[in-house]
Write a structure and sequence with these properties.
The complex is a heterodimer. By secondary structure, chain A is mainly α. Chain A contains 10 helices and no strands. Chain B is about 80% helix and about 0% strand. The chains are: A mainly alpha, B mainly alpha.
Amino acid sequence: MSRSRRYYLLIGSLPVLTSPFAPSHRPISRIRLDGRLALLHPDDARELALIEGVVRWESLPMGQDDEVFLRRADEALAQLSRPNLRDVLRWRLAARTMLAALRRRHLGLALPAPPVRWGFGEWAAHIRRNWSHPQFRLAPYFPWIDEAQRALAEGDARALERLVVHAVWRHLEQAGAGHYFDFEAVVLYVLRWSLAARWAAYEPARASTRFGHLIESGLGRHALLFAQ
Amino acid sequence: MEQIIIAMGWAGLYGPMALGAIGSTIGCAIAGQAACGALLDTESGHGRYIGISAMPSSQTIYGIVVMFSLNRTVTVETAPGLFAVGLLTGLALLFSAVRQGESCASAIQVAKAKPEAFGLSLAPAAIVEGFAVFAFIFALVISTGIPAGTP
């Protein structure tokens, strides 16, 4: 397999993504993106699917336990041929492990007792060892952990989500330095596209309307019970 | 042995042209693919994308001129000079064309994202072109030192 495979046509055809929060740069649809990704070599397409299978929440079945997910992540890491893409995936899994630990502590839950796996690799063990420390001694690796903790304590889910999206975006941009038309550039673009598409899907007005409809349909004929 | 030396002389004579053409082919293909991708993504400015993608073709022209300047009877006396100048000039043109193609592909990406930076985005490609011109000019200068060769 050629490591120097270049995707000039594919990268050239992808709209520029400047920021996950820029309303003027709405990402293209998944259908159109998949149409462009059809230009990938089959081996590269398989590797991209492996990464997306771990990273994209949409590809994770609801109700699946952590063990199954972590096994899937381990298998994906073992099959990836590019070391820098393995690093990107490891960082993402580490960030998720850290956030899961923060949420557990915020909810007053303890970590599952061994041998139950709840987090990724050495990071899970590190957090267990430093459970009593406010930032699990992870501030050097995740400088935004303090802010994440604050947003969680204040119940500001939107601020937390924004912070995580921004941090992941920054990490992907840094990982993309020196990669312009190669497979790594394609993968990093797709991962950034996922973030931008996810954020673009958060429409407060629409969510509020839908929530109202759900309330109405849930209450049904009891809606006017106390209005009389 | 003499035949090998003569063959190398011919390789040096045709080298700038052939290697320059190979470089231009690769460079134009690289920039051309990026330009075609940009056509899919944009609604305007198509002409300039295609225009940029043709930049690495100049190396072939330089190669042709160098080939004509080196053109003389290939003998045992002229062959070493022809081989050395021709091959090195050809390699310089080849690599500059390939790298210029990559620079042009990047310039197309920049022009897509920031049309106002279009002119500046071409600077790297222009600098690479400058090195190809150096190789071309000094090949012409140094070729005067190669014996004319008698049939």
